[in-house]
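Predict the holo structure. Ligand: zinc ion.
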Amino acid sequence: MKVENSQHPEDEVKSCPQCGFIWKNFKQTRELGCPQCYETFHQEVQHWLTKKGYGYEYTGTGPRKDAEAARRDEQKNELENALAWSLRQELYEEAARIRDQLRSLQEGK
Ligand SMILES: [Zn+2]
């Protein structure tokens, strides 16, 4: 299995074999061209979602309850946005994964 570096500039012009969608376009439209796009750009989508701020573990240094609660609210918003986006793109696996994260976020006290 070949491991590709998602930082590589070639990714900018990587295209979907199904519909010819280019990843670069995603950054403007935030829409994928077809279901095959998600297969093609899985790594990039993951990276994008992560960069948006969701998916990280709490790495704070202290038990600052207020800051933590604010951060959790923010994270919840981002997760909800990501979930809505995934459903709109019909990325049900991704949506399920985000839903799990939302659930654990809500349960995490
Ligand atoms: Zn496509």
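The chain has a mean pLDDT of 79. Residues 16, 18-19, 21, 33-34, 36-37 surround zinc ion (CB under 6 Å).
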